[in-house]
């Protein structure tokens, strides 16, 4: 069964109404939340939606162009890792043109992840974030984000934000499928509210797309400093014990450049505060790692 673009376009309007009705939107004024005019391209099978979207951009596609596939044959995660993209999941990419310095590229991943998680939480789905780009539900991986950029003279000219979210597709032990979770956890009162039910892959796509644009708009208007506290509030890694080059430490937050803030248990020098910044790829946080109380 293919992805129903018309159903998703209708869901975008429904999602906007439902999120505004919660009264919990962190963005003001509300007119900033109006979804842009998306141009949605849907196919059954593709190598990756990011690759598909880059090809559309090369053909003149504007910002707001969206690529969706029912399955990917060469889906990718961070560091080139393969992302399982079997039928039943959401595989979506959207094009942006931020025109900011390339040093701010990790911030787009942060704001996109935060936006999607925050939007899903308004549907009583307690999604959290795993640094840098994972969506987490009940300690299991729900989805991931892959941001790719093109640069000219030190500034991003085009950005593609790709997201994969497990819906009804088979998942490994460390992951979770959202449809099965909802069937077992949605309350009777919530089920009675059609506007706040996630009932289809198309509705999930609308929430994810709206969430990306929500986070992106918030970031562009208020900057990363305003977003970091909200991101950290959803970060499952806060307080997690880690090892950095053989030295133990504890996660205490993130920095504006997207790096992880870790306080080492024993600083090299007594006068040091023990804070170090960890770039993505330097350590593995895994799932189900131990945490300590922050203090």
Tally of separate helices: 7
The residue-averaged pLDDT reads: 85
What share of residues is helical? 25-40%
Q: CATH homologous superfamily of the largest domain - what is it? A: Bira Bifunctional Protein, Domain 2
Number of domains: 2
The CATH level-2 architecture of the largest domain is identified as: 2-Layer Sandwich
Number of DSSP strand runs: 11
Descriptive overview:
The chain has 295 residues and is of the alpha+beta class. It has two domains: 229 residues, BirA Bifunctional Protein, domain 2; 59 residues, SH3 type barrels. Helix content is 30%, strand content 25%. It has seven helices and eleven strands. The strands form two sheets. Strands 1-2-3-7-6-5-4 form a seven-stranded mixed β-sheet, with helices on both faces. A four-stranded antiparallel β-sheet has the order 8-9-10-11, with no helix packed on it. Helix 1 packs across helix 6 and helix 6 crosses helix 7. The longest helix is centred in the C-terminal third of the chain and has 22 residues. The protein starts with a helix and ends in a 17-residue tail after the last strand.
């Amino acid at each position: 069964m293919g992805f129903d673009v018309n159903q998703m376009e209708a869901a975008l309007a429904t999602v906007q109404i439902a999120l505004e009705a919660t009264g919990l939107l962190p963005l003001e004024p509300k007119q900033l939340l109006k979804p842009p005019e998306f141009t949605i391209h849907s196919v059954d099978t593709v190598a990756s939606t990011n690759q598909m979207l880059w090809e559309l951009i090369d053909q003149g596609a504007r910002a707001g162009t969206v690529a969706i596939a029912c399955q990917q044959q060469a889906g990718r995660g961070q560091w080139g890792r393969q992302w399982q993209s079997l039928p039943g999941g959401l595989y979506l990419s959207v094009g942006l043109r931020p025109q900011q310095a390339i040093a701010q590229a990790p911030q787009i991943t942060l704001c996109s992840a935060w936006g999607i998680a925050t939007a899903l939480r308004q549907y009583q789905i307690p999604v959290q974030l795993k640094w840098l780009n994972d969506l987490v539900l009940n300690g299991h991986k729900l989805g991931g984000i892959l941001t790719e950029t093109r640069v000219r003279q030190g500034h991003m000219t085009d950005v593609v934000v790709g997201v994969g979210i497990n819906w009804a597709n088979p998942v490994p032990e460390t992951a979770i499928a959202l449809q099965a979770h909802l069937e077992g956890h949605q309350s009777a009162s919530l089920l009675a509210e059609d506007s706040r039910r996630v009932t289809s892959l198309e509705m999930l796509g609308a929430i994810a797309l709206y969430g990306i644009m929500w986070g992106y708009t918030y970031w562009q208007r208020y900057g990363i400093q305003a977003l970091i506290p909200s991101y950290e509030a959803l970060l499952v890694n806060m307080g997690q014990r880690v090892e950095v080059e053989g030295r133990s430490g504890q996660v205490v937050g993130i920095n504006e450049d997207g790096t992880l803030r870790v306080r080492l248990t024993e600083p090299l020098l007594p006068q040091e505060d023990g804070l170090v910044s960890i770039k993505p790829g330097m350590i593995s946080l895994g799932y189900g790692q131990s945490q300590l109380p922050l203090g």
